[in-house]
Amino acid sequence: MANMRLRTIASAVGCIVLVVLCGSGAAATRLEWKLAKGKTYYQRTVMDQQIVQTVMGQQQKIEQATGLGLKLQVLDVDAQGNMRIQYTYLWTKLKQVNPMAQVDYDSSRQSPVPAGAESFAALIGQSYTIRMTPKGKVLDVNGVEQLKEAVLKKLPAGADVNPMGSPVAAYIDKESLKQMTEARMAIYPDKPVNPGESWSKEVTVAVGFTMIIQSKWTLQKAEAGVATIGLAASVRTDPNKPMDASGMKLTFDLSGTQEGTSQVAEATGLVTSDKERQQLKGEIRVGAPTEGPPMMTIPMTIDTQATEEMSEQMWKTGPQ
Question: In the CATH hierarchy, which fold is given to the domain comprising 28-311?
Answer without folding.
Answer: Lipovitellin-phosvitin complex; beta-sheet shell regions (2.30.230)
